[in-house]
Amino acid sequence: MHMKTFDNLLEAIDHFKSIGYTMDFNLAFDKLICTENIVRLHPEKFEIIESIRFDENTDPAEESIMYVLESRDGKFKGTMVSAFGTYADDISKELLDKLSFHHNSAN
């Protein structure tokens, strides 16, 4: 785990891009996708290296979490940002379970 602190989300994204986590992942129903590289990773194909929560506002709706992700084979590295609760109904239970575990253990 990296354990560096960041002042904001953009600073964290820039830092991880500078050390090789360049892909921008998004949620799809049962997988993570990176459209620019046409990559699809099912929950068993990636690891969450770190999760960082950002509370940049006093409004709970503004809370976000950044996941630092890497495929198990090490070929794909990137980040995903989520307003966690917003997407919970649109993803599979397996993917939600994997993300929830890290969300609940984030600093």
Structure description:
With 107 residues, the chain is of the alpha+beta class. It has one domain (9-105). It contains two helices and seven strands, in the order αβββββββα. The strands form two sheets. A four-stranded mixed β-sheet has the order 1-7-6-5, sandwiched between helices. A three-stranded antiparallel β-sheet has the order 2-3-4, with no helix packed on it. A hairpin with a 5-residue loop joins strand 6 and strand 7 (77-82). The chain is globular.
Strand fraction equals 25-35%
Shape: globular
Overall mean pLDDT stands at: 81
Outline the low-pLDDT stretches: none
Count of spatially separate domains: 1
> Count of DSSP E strands?
7
Run of helices and strands: HEEEEEEEH
Q: Fraction of residues in helices?
A: 10-25%
Sheet of most strands? 4 strands, mixed
Number of helices: 2
- Integer-rounded radius of gyration: 13 Å
By oligomeric state, this entry counts as single chain
Topology, element by element:
Blueprint: H1 9-18, E1 23-24, E2 26-28, E3 31-34, E4 39-41, E5 46-54, E6 64-71, E7 77-82, H2 93-105
Parallel strand pairs: 1-7
Antiparallel strand pairs: 2-3, 3-4, 5-6, 6-7
